[in-house]
Design a protein that fits this description.
Blueprint lengths: L1 H51 L13 H53 L5 H13 L9 H6 L2 H23 L1 E7 L3 E3 L3 E3 L1 E6 L11 E4 L5 E3 L5 E4 L3 E9 L2 E10 L5
Parallel strand pairs: 2-9
Antiparallel strand pairs: 1-4, 3-7, 5-8, 6-7, 8-9
Helix pairs in contact: 2-3, 3-5
């Protein structure tokens, strides 16, 4: 009988445990359903709220900070000002070059006109120096320092050329200049006699210079008169005169005595 009681007791315990499991399962399912219903309600509420809210505008493009914009504008203005100053400086320098070129041209014309009006200096080097002066004001191209800038200046190579030509011309004149004059003619004439004086003119090389004609002159035309070009002399009265022959820078003088007819 005790075994039967124990069997019935064991059976009753198992049924109670099964009942508890079913209760827990129902509670769990109920909680899940409530959770699902709550989540669904939240989603529907969020959807309704989103439909009521206005559309969010697109975000504006990112802009640099105001200070950076101001600095960029200042930098651009500074660069523009520097470029304008550089351009103005270049224009001013070019205008100064034009003014100097005009001054050099005018000075050159004045020198030429001065030579024509007052005559050319006898010294070729002096003449060349005067002609070089206007070149000093002439503008140069690119500025160079040192010996390179001096050599490239028009006053240097232009003046060097003028001086070289003046030196060559001076040497030519010296070589072709009269170096010696020998006078041939009578030393005594009677009154009324006519004779001829001749000048032998030679340059430094011993040659007769071209286009050189001696000029004749009598110191006392009352005693003897001489033709300045031909050298023909005519005795006028008794006395003594000096006959001069000038060729270039050389002057030769001879004494001429005129005596009366029949005199000794």
């Amino acid at each position: 009988m005790s075994s039967l009681f124990e069997e019935n007791y064991d059976t009753g315990y198992d049924e109670e445990e099964e009942f508890d499991d079913e209760e827990q399962s129902r509670d769990s399912r109920a909680r899940r359903r409530r959770a699902q219903a709550l989540a669904s309600a939240r989603r529907r509420a969020a959807a309704r709220r989103d439909r009521r809210l206005p559309a969010t505008p697109a975000s504006p493009p990112a802009t640099p900070p105001q200070r950076a914009v101001v600095n960029a504008v200042k930098e651009l203005d500074l660069q523009t000002q520097v470029q304008q100053d550089t351009l103005q400086s270049a224009i001013a320098a070019q205008n100064r070059k034009f003014d100097r070129a005009a001054l050099s041209t005018v000075a050159t014309l004045l020198v030429s006109e001065g030579f024509r009006t007052f005559g050319t200096p006898d010294n070729n080097l002096v003449r060349a120096g005067i002609q070089i002066l206007p070149l000093v004001a002439f503008p140069t191209g690119e500025k160079r320092k040192g010996i390179g800038g001096v050599i490239r200046h028009p006053a240097f190579y232009g003046g060097l050329g003028v001086l070289a030509l003046a030196f060559i011309d001076d040497q030519r004149k010296r070589n072709s200049a009269v170096q010696n004059v020998d006078v041939l003619g009578p030393s005594r004439l009677t009154v009324g006699a006519v004779d001829l004086f001749v000048a032998d003119v030679r340059d430094a090389s011993g040659k007769v210079p071209a286009n050189v004609t001696p000029a004749w002159e009598s110191s006392n035309v009352a005693v003897a008169e001489i033709n300045a070009t031909t050298g023909q002399v005519t005795a006028r009265s008794a006395g003594v005169t000096i006959i001069s022959a000038k060729a270039g820078d050389i002057v030769r003088r001879v004494r001429l005595e005129v005596v009366a007819a029949g005199g000794k």
